Amino acid sequence: MKKYALSGVAFAAVASLVLSACGGGDDSDEKNTRGAKSEKDVLTSYNPQPASNLKQGGKMTLPIVEIPDQLNPMQGNGSLYTSKIAWFYQPQLSYNDPKGKVTFNKDYLTSVKQKTVDGNTQVTYDFNPKAKWNDGQAIDWTAIRDTWKANSGKDKKYVVSSTDGYQNIKSVTKGENAKQAIVTYDGPYVWWDYIFNTVINPHIAKPDAFNKAYVSKPHAEWGAGPYTIDKFDAKGGTVSYKPNPKWWGAKPHLDKFTFVQMEESAEINAFKNGQTDGAEVQRAEKLAQVKSMKGIDIRRGTSAETNLLVFNSTSPQLKDVAVRKALMEGIDRAQLAKVTFQGLNYTETLPGSTNLYPFQKGYQDNFGKLVKFNAAKAKKELDAAGWKPGSDGIRAKGGKKLSLNFPTIGDSAEVKARAGALAQMMKNIGVKLNIQARPSSDFNKVFTTRAFDIFGMGFISSSANGMGFICQMYCSNSSLNVSRSTPKSFDTEVKAVTKLPTEQEQIDAGNKVEAKAMKTYGIMPLHNGPSIWAVKKGVANYGPAQFYGNYGLIGPPELIGWQK
Fold it and tell me: Helix/strand/coil (H, E, C) string of 214-243?
């Protein structure tokens, strides 16, 4: 399982979730949502309802930023939107509650038992005898084995989004029968219950199929769950689902669920016209347009997002760590946050970690201790690095100007305002920032091809246990580490964190590792932010809910529906 699901957040279109004490669906938008200081302060608002309170039938349509080419959520080029699409038709073996506590899905796993054997964490999974893929193959111990092999990192032909957890496994063996898998870790492993929340189909158990079979093809027959794909039209921007006739568990409540890809400017109009049943509104101009609407809820909560600026350390002008450090010191994060949160009645402390949030135990401001906004200092450091201002005010070195490409994703006024503010900050220290406006559907293309010098993006956490997934952010070969600023020699130190026997030891070591990684000046945390959704009244089990579900998705898909 991956902690982080990639999304175009910071200077792009947002997709998000939220944590802790369950709130109802009628939170007033006039309440001030502040960055939480403890779990007691963390807010959710997703109208949690049991199955008995839901209507049977009906349709629901929600927006999605993009329909990516890569539809395998474990493949390294997959994004948050890949995971959202997969959520409704691929097996979900476990779910998190809003605080991140794991519950195993009885429809797939009748028993999960953990014990220590000869100092190694060992977990026994018993699959439901009824569990089958849509193509008729049994879901059994081989699904665990194949998922481990693909994600372990041992076979480099698999392009994976994360090896965290999987790389700690020593063996996966068949148990008493084919429906039982025994997973043995190499030593103790604290976060064992976060691994194998989903598994891969036998058809993609080989590297070539794992990497390519799902490109532009969802393969509904390789899925399993309460819903299956009804129609998939990437060009038309729609993915719709229907109840799966081969599903053996509790009946889903909706007759049809549809994702529609659209730009932000179209998203609000579609919601106001009744074409969709919800819209993300954590931008001031969007929130203002829905405030006066009747028959809706505005649901607000704290966010499990980390919004970043990523500095491409392989770009010619950014190879020098001193230059990347100077650029960061020339950026006023507080001003960017002010632009971001204007009109939202929200404030927060600037984040200093990508592993833990300010409301979590063990959080440290590792970035804030390292970088402080100081334009005068930034100028001196750029001078020292050999980049001297020219007659036009733009620095140059060896005949080449310090001109950097900065793609933005989406068409919102906030994206444009924030990019403009960043460009002015760069101009103030003698750097030209070339803003390249791209549509929302281009997010994954920009990310996977690393077509940028600086890029604003973000991660949504599906796990509360950030230190268990530290390799995703800081291992040199992680597909999510697009800065590539951490050297390969650092990987051993990063990976050692998850082998420590207790949560506290991992937190202590992880903070030290993160502080060291941040000295490579590859990523700059910008903000976490709120999660705000506008939805039609009656939408149940959807909205800000922090770690509830996985991959930034809400709970069991069969429980999304309309309240009676």
Answer: CECCCCHHHCCCCEEEEEEECCCCEEEEEE
For residue 523, the model assigns a pLDDT of: 95
Q: Reply yes or no on whether the pLDDT at 11 is more than 80.
A: no
Residues in the chain: 564
Tens of pLDDT, residue by residue over 104-116, are: 999 999 999 999 9
Query: What percent of the chain is modeled with pLDDT above 70?
Result: 92
CA nearest to 227, candidates 260, 258, 261: 258
pLDDT band at 31 (very low <50, low <70, confident <90, very high): very low
pLDDT at position 550, please? 53
Burial tier of 372 (Cβ tally within 10 Å: 0-12, 13-18, 19+): exposed
**Amino acid type, 287:** L
Count CA atoms closer than 13 A to 337's CA, side-chain side.
22
Asked if pLDDT for residue 498 goes beyond 60, the answer is: yes
d(CA 29, CA 27): 6
Contact criterion met (CB below 8 Å) for 350 and 525: yes
Q: Read off the DSSP letter of residue 468.
A: G
pTM score, whole prediction: 0.81
CA dist., res. 266 & res. 409, Å (int): 15
Give every CB contact of residue 235 below 8 A, 6+ residues apart in sequence.
Answer: none
Structure tokens at 225: 């769950």
Query: Cα dihedral sign for 207, 211, 212, 217?
Result: positive
Least confident of 34-38, 45-49, 313-317: 34-38
Q: Which are the contacts of 527, defined by CB distance < 8 A and separation ≥ 6?
A: 10, 307, 333, 336, 337, 340, 341, 348, 350, 351
User: Which H or E run contains 505?
Assistant: helix 503-518
Name residues whose C-beta falls within 8 Å of residue 4's C-beta, 6 or more positions apart in sequence: 162, 459, 460, 461, 462, 469, 472, 473, 480
Copy the structure tokens of residue 367: 């970035």
Decide: 346 and 32 in contact? Cβ < 8 Å.
yes
Q: Which two tokens stand for residue 564?
A: 């009676």
Residue type, 280: E
How many Cα atoms occupy the beta-carbon half-sphere of 148 within 13 Å?
A: 21
Split at pLDDT 50, 70, 90, the class of 553 is: low
Which residues touch 33 (CB under 8 Å, ≥6 apart)?
A: 43, 300, 301, 302, 344, 345, 346, 530
Cα 73 from Cα 90, distance rounded (Å): 10
Give the confidence band of 549 by pLDDT, cuts at 50, 70, 90: low
Dihedral sign (CA 358, 360, 364, 366):
negative
Task: Report DSSP letters for 261-305, one per residue.
Answer: E--HHHHHHHHHTTSSSEEE--SHHHHHHHTT-SSEEEEEEE--E
Give the Cα separation of 79 and 68 in Å (integer).
8
Q: Which residues of 490-507 are buried (b: 16+ CB within 10 A; e: fewer)?
A: bbeebbebbbbeeeeebb
Q: Which of 9, 3, 64, 78 is nearest to 444 (CA)?
A: 78
Q: How far apart (Å, rounded) are the C-alpha atoms in residues 88 and 71? A: 12
Average pLDDT for 507-536: 94
Distance CA 432, CA 204 (A): 45
